[in-house]
Amino acid sequence: MFASSRRVLAATAFCFGVAFSLSAFANACEDCYQNCLIQRSACRAAGTPQEQCLTAYAQCRHRCNCQLP
Prior knowledge:
- By secondary structure, this protein is mainly α.
- The protein has one domain.
- The chain is built from two helices and no strands.
């Protein structure tokens, strides 16, 4: 009787652990992407051509190494 309850509790705890891990990963990616956007805005504010800023922005996002869009 208690074995199935423990199994459900263990599965629930595992799912919460996975969810918290993924949430932390997503926050790290979002912080990296926001930093890239700030750098792009500073690039444009400095008068750098848009194409050059966009290339630097794409490289910055690539360095974030995230699978998120």
